[in-house]
Amino acid sequence: MMAVVGVIALAILVQFAVHTVRTDPRDSRAIALRELQVNTLEPGEHVVRLVSVFKRPAISYFRATRGLLALTSKRLLYIGVEPRDLLAAPDLPPTFEERDFALDTMVHVTSGRTFFGLARAVVITTPNEKIKLGVPSAVWPDAKQLVVAMDARRERAVALSAQQKALLARAEADRKAAEASRRKAKYYTVRRGDALGGIATIWNTTTDKLREWNKLPDNKIRVGQTILVRPAL
Fold it and tell me: What is the mean pLDDT of each run of 10 residues along the chain (233 residues)?
């Protein structure tokens, strides 16, 4: 019985090995890099950090999608070269899994571990999901630098967002103050040489209204007298 179990286990291991070799015999990094440079980067966009990564689905652990995680001047990009199917022709063009993430306060990049904790990973957290991308040990220092760079950009984005909120709040407060001031009643102190008609012209009103608002029996006013020139709105 134990011999049968051993044979089955060996067959499974051999199948996994063959499966892995046949489905991903390509230089995934070179393929992903070409896709990044030729089809993905926008005009004027350049790469700041570049890390080789892999992504293993839980239901098919040995079918890893290998590729690149690129921090550019505009965003964070993941390009994965999907493994070929066992029955697919070897000369079929590669297919890609591509994701991009904005460089803002909603995207957080940290260090972590992959599924089952077997390898180090870069963890990308957004309001809707969390993505773990495994990192080969040889390039982990590059991954750490990318995480640090993303932290710095996120801190700048947080600071900028706080500054913008403060400016908007100040602008709203100034608007409300101006609106309150506009609605307040306006008064004018009579100076030497002033006449009621001239004051009415300056404040875009009439002498009749000035007399009405200030309960004046006539157009006579005196120096130092405070008169209402516009009622509160």
Answer: 53 48 65 94 94 78 82 95 70 87 91 83 93 93 94 85 89 90 91 93 93 93 93 88
Distance CA(21)–CA(159), nearest Å, equals: 48
CATH code for the structural domain at 183-230: 3.10.350.10
Closest CA relative to residue 84, chosen from 112, 63, 53, 61: 63
CATH of 25-163, one of 2.60.40.1180, 2.30.29.30, 3.30.43.10, 3.90.1150.10: 2.30.29.30
Please report the pLDDT score of residue 14 as a whole number.
Answer: 47
Residues of the chain with CATH 2.30.29.30: 25-163
Q: What are the residue ranges of CATH 3.10.350.10 in the chain?
A: 183-230
